[in-house]
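Whiteboard transcription, Tuesday session. T.W. wrote the structure tokens on the left side:
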């Protein structure tokens, strides 16, 4: 058995993805990072890992990420799929915070935005799983952690594309059921507002914790889900929003 643990993190150049990469490195993982900018390359150098520029929307970039990781380390123990919000988002839905009276567009959203968001939130994970699952089967196991959103289970008008993450959650459950026999797990992590958000007073009051999450806090949950400590957590959607969502599931 090897003591080497290796984690891929996409969208790791900044924000939550960066926080996850740092906490995974602190937990003993060698990290292989990718983002559309060179920030992931610089962060990987700081963390003693490898990095590259690329997009989760490009299957060639995903394959190159997997291939370079295997070339460098010979295994992949965890994959953290983090993705942005996509391009071309109408200004009307870039509102920061939560306004219950917000009346944003819905039927006016163009088809290409729906398709791009589906590719971003769902198909990028499906494509990554296709590439990595055979590797994890051969090595005897692994874990996927998909970064999702608190808005998936309580839809909010300013963030309509988050409804598509519901498909991601269903995929994660079906994947977890199918590949648990190979000791492979898939879970989704649903952060609330994080430290990069300039919260309105109303939005801050709606959070029982009365503050946004630190990237490191989300990263620590991610590192736990990627670790053997979470070996019996599979096909789940983990909410980390400071108590903002009101639904009891």
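and on the right, the sequence the group agreed on:
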């Amino acid at each position: 058995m090897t003591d080497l643990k290796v984690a891929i993190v996409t969208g790791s150049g900044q924000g939550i993805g960066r926080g996850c990469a740092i906490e995974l490195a602190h937990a003993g993982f060698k990290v292989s990072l990718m983002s559309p900018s060179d920030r992931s390359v610089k962060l990987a150098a700081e963390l003693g890992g490898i990095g590259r520029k690329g997009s989760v929307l490009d299957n060639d970039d995903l394959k190159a990420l997997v291939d370079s990781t295997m070339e460098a380390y010979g295994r992949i123990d965890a994959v953290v799929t983090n993705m942005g919000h996509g391009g071309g988002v109408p200004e009307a839905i870039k509102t920061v915070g939560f306004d219950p009276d917000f009346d944003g567009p819905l039927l006016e959203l163009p088809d290409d935005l729906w398709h791009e968001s589906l590719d971003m939130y769902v198909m990028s994970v499906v494509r990554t799983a296709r590439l990595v699952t055979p590797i994890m089967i051969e090595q005897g196991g692994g874990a996927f952690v998909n970064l999702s959103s608190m808005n998936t289970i309580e839809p909010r008008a300013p963030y309509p594309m988050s409804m598509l993450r519901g498909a991601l959650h269903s995929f994660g459950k079906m994947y977890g059921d199918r590949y648990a026999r190979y000791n492979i797990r898939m879970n989704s992590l649903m952060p609330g507002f994080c430290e990069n958000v300039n919260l309105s007073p109303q939005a801050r009051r709606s959070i029982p914790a009365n503050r946004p999450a630190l990237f490191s806090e989300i990263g620590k949950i991610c590192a736990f889900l990627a670790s053997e400590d979470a070996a019996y957590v599979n096909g789940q959607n983990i909410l980390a929003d400071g108590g903002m969502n009101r639904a009891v599931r």
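Someone added at the bottom: Strands lie at 5-10, 29-35, 50-53, 78-81, 142-147, 184-191, 237-240.
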